[in-house]
Structures are given as C-alpha cells and as structure tokens.
Amino acid sequence: MIHIDCNEFMSGNDYSVAKETLIHEGQHCVNFSETWNNPQKDHFAQTWLNESMSQAATIIYDQSTIDYHVRCYNDHAKG
User: Which strand (E) or helix (H) includes residue 59?
Assistant: First the structure.
C-alpha cells in the first residue's frame, strides 16, 4: 500500500505531481518485489540504480518531467 498526501502536491485539480510520485514509488515497490521474491538474487539494487529506474519510469510516463527537473536544477544552480 502506498499512501500519498495529495494536498501537498495539488494546485486546483492538477494531479500530475501526485501521479508522477505514485509511478516513482510504484517502481520502488516493483523493484523490491522482484528482488525479495527471487531466490537467485541475494542483494537489492544499489540506491543510485533504484532511484534512476524510478526516475526513468516517471519520464516514460510524462516526457515533460525531464524538462521540469532540468529547470529546477538550473534555477538552483544560479543561486
């Protein structure tokens, strides 16, 4: 079960950030399930790889996600 407090994300009826978060966290659940239930795997994916796969799932869902992240990075880098 994944619980997301959408009030933190929503402005009006825009559920896009909540959907992206659900997809991101859903991939973590799939990754955990695939690793936990597979007796041939004795370890979990490294954190950076797990996070990268979750970001990729979000980008596959909505390509504009990458534009948003690049914009946030550039704004933060400017100070």
Answer: helix 47-61
Helical axes 64-78 vs 47-61, angle rounded to 10°: 120
User: How many whole angstroms separate alpha carbon 53 and alpha carbon 59?
Assistant: 10
Closest CA to 9 of 77, 22, 64, 1: 22
pTM of the model: 0.70
Contact 27, 57 (CB under 8 A): yes
Distance CA 32, CA 5 (A): 22
* Segment 18-42, tens digit of pLDDT: 788 889 999 999 988 888 877 777 6
